[in-house]
Amino acid sequence: MRGWTLILSAIFAVSLGVVFYSAYQIGSGEIEIQRGIEVWDQTQRDPESFSKAKAAAPVNTHLVGKIIFPTIDKQFPIVRGITDEDLKEGVGYDPATPAPGSNGNSVLAGHRDGVFRKLGQLRNGDEIVVETSEGTFRYQMVSHIIVSQHEEHAVKPSQDAILTLITCYPFSYIGNAPNRYIITAKLIQSPDRSLVQEASRIALK
């Protein structure tokens, strides 16, 4: 009986350690993300001080913008790259795809237990705002799909200016999630209105 007690105590201690470690990871990640937002906002207020702001937050050396979800009242920094290390700092931009606001399919990725944990609350018609050094781009969600992690053609190239958001699914899955949750949004407003007009012209063909 004493042996079982020791085993159960050990299991409880390990489980408690995992919980505290996870909480620590989430907390430290949120600090980095908030710092990234502050750095980006500083660049918008005073572009000349960008280098100084980045020096104050060296983890955001690949900071390229900010994404805002008005419907769920969330905003996150966008960093260049989609590795695990990149995604600890915010939403990752896949540099192999067109830059947000450009014609084509711009791809952003995020962790389901991090920046994209509430992605499932978005609905068709919701607005998604992306800020970059080129200006502010407004998108409107048009669809979402759930596919296997092994699906290779879920994200397709496009002539239109669209935005694709990707995260793992199910959101509450413990371990390596087997699926991917993918949102597609169309560009509806841009500093360069010709981009939107061109996208509309192509869509009407």
Topology (elements, then pairings):
Layout: H1 2-45, H2 50-56, E1 63-69, E2 74-80, H3 84-87, E3 91-93, E4 104-109, E5 127-132, E6 135-148, E7 161-169, E8 179-189, H4 193-203
Parallel strand pairs: 2-3, 4-7
Antiparallel strand pairs: 1-2, 1-5, 3-4, 5-6, 6-8, 7-8
Helix pairs in contact: 1-2
Structure in words:
InterPro entries: Sortase, Sortase_D_1, Sortase_dom-sf. Keywords: Hydrolase, Membrane, Transmembrane, Transmembrane helix. It comes from Paenibacillus gyeongsangnamensis. The chain crosses the membrane at residues 6-24. This is Class D sortase. The protein is of the alpha+beta class. The chain has one domain: Sortase, Chain: A. Helix content is 32%, strand content 31%. The chain has four helices and eight strands. The protein has helices spanning 2-45, 50-56, 84-87, 193-203; strands at 63-69, 74-80, 91-93, 104-109, 127-132, 135-148, 161-169, 179-189. An eight-stranded mixed barrel has the order 1-2-3-4-7-8-6-5. Strand 5 and strand 6 (135-148) form a beta hairpin. The longest helix has 44 residues, at 2-45. The protein is globular, with a radius of gyration of 20 Å. The model is unreliable at 12-28 and 197-205 (pLDDT under 50).
